[in-house]
Amino acid sequence: MLIPNTSNPGVLPEPTLQDAIPTLSRLVRDPAFLDSHVLPHLEEAGRAEDWYVAYRREDPDSYCSLQIFVWPPGSATAIHDHSSWGAFCCVVGSILEERYERADDGSMPDLARLKELWRLEWRREDGISTVLPYEGGIHRVGNPTGEPAISAHLYGPRLGEIDGRDYDPSRDYVCDRLED
């Protein structure tokens, strides 16, 4: 729970990943939120060719971003990380997350050797997946099923100018991503 700043009661402190988990959990179980921000995208999800962000709300006061991702069948992100913490919950259908770690020491620019750590299929009842910035959350998310999926994501404040990094393990390559 966010505690108001007592020296400036109108300003909430910067949220943490620990704040995001119960907030996101409540949000994805709220019928009004589902009816207004999730379910309207379900029909469109079956016709889309690739994943996309259907809704985004940036909160300048708390530095958080709420995003609703639509995952048509067969869609997936590139392997990537983020410059902030993040949490997501699959709300409709299921999505597959593959998590990676770097097998190199990160000392050479543009070079990254990755090792797959695990793969999990997430449904709403499975809870919330979290990532830490940069190497603490290298992953790929996608929908390998034949049915559309929708997920809700909360991201914290960016730690730098970039949005994160994209990885290409076929070339042991990594590059900065300016926008998501």
Keyword list:
globular; 3-stranded antiparallel sheet; Jelly Rolls; 5-stranded antiparallel sheet; 3 helices; about 15% helix; mainly beta
- Estimated structural class: mainly beta
Helix content: 10-25%
Instruction: Write down how many β-strands occur, each being a DSSP E stretch of 2 or more residues.
Output: 11
What sequence of helices (H) and strands (E) makes up the elements?
HHHEEEEEEEEEEE
CATH topology: Jelly Rolls
How far do the termini sit from each other?
28 Å
Strand order of the largest sheet: 1-2-9-4-7
Radius of gyration: 17 Å
Give the second-level CATH assignment, the architecture.
Sandwich
Protein described:
There is one protein chain. It contains three helices and eleven strands. The protein has one domain: Sandwich (Jelly Rolls), CATH 2.60.120.10. The chain is mostly beta strands. Strand 10 and strand 11 form a beta hairpin.
Could you outline the blueprint of secondary structure elements for this entry?
Layout: H1 17-27, H2 31-38, H3 42-45, E1 52-59, E2 64-71, E3 79-80, E4 86-92, E5 95-102, E6 114-122, E7 129-131, E8 138-142, E9 149-155, E10 164-168, E11 173-177
Antiparallel strand pairs: 1-2, 2-9, 3-10, 4-7, 4-9, 5-6, 5-8, 10-11
Produce a short descriptive summary.
This protein is mainly beta.
